[in-house]
Specification:
about 160 residues, Pnp Oxidase, Chain A, 7-stranded antiparallel beta sheet, 5 helices
Length: about 160
């Protein structure tokens, strides 16, 4: 039986609220861009979930954009949940990678290049369950997102 972690339980609850989701999206990711980079991926602002830095090319601007995100490891692949806290619109990073699917990921002190695609139906259900095991707040985000189906993005490593 898994032991309860009061800090993680609080963060899960707080992150599931609208105010908590806003705080994570607008403040937490800014802190994490710095914290993850300078700790070689050892630390992020919550210490509760695995985080990486995703660098995309802006869909309209072409400018490099970096965001800190919770990730799910799936073999050699990585899965990202484009929830935006249950917002009715997709996150900007998701729109960026739809336009430019090649991305750079900083994870565990290493930078690697990946090609992205949306999870197919078979992958989606399996990865959604893995995502809920990582962060149960995604279920709240799903109900808050209305008619928007929260995308799951699969990142596959590009061979050097």
């Amino acid at each position: 039986m898994q032991q309860s972690n009061p800090f993680k339980d609080f963060l899960t609850w707080f992150g599931s609220t609208r105010a908590g989701a806003w705080t994570i999206i607008n403040l937490g990711t800014r802190v994490d861009r710095w914290l993850i980079k300078f700790s070689d991926g050892r630390y992020n602002s919550t210490l509760a979930w695995p985080c990486l830095l995703l660098t995309t090319k802006g869909a309209k601007s072409g400018v490099q954009r970096t965001v800190a995100l919770v990730y799910i490891k799936d073999g050699d692949n990585i899965a990202l949940i484009a929830s935006k806290g249950g917002n009715l619109k997709h996150p900007a990073w998701y729109l960026n990678l739809k336009a430019n699917p090649e991305v750079e990921v900083f994870l565990d002190g290493n930078k690697n290049n990946y090609i992205t695609s949306d999870a197919d139906e078979e992958e989606y259900d399996r990865l959604w369950q893995k995502a809920l095991e990582t962060y149960s707040g995604y279920e709240t985000y799903k109900s808050r997102a209305g008619d928007r189906r929260i995308p799951i993005v699969v990142l596959k490593p590009i061979s050097s």
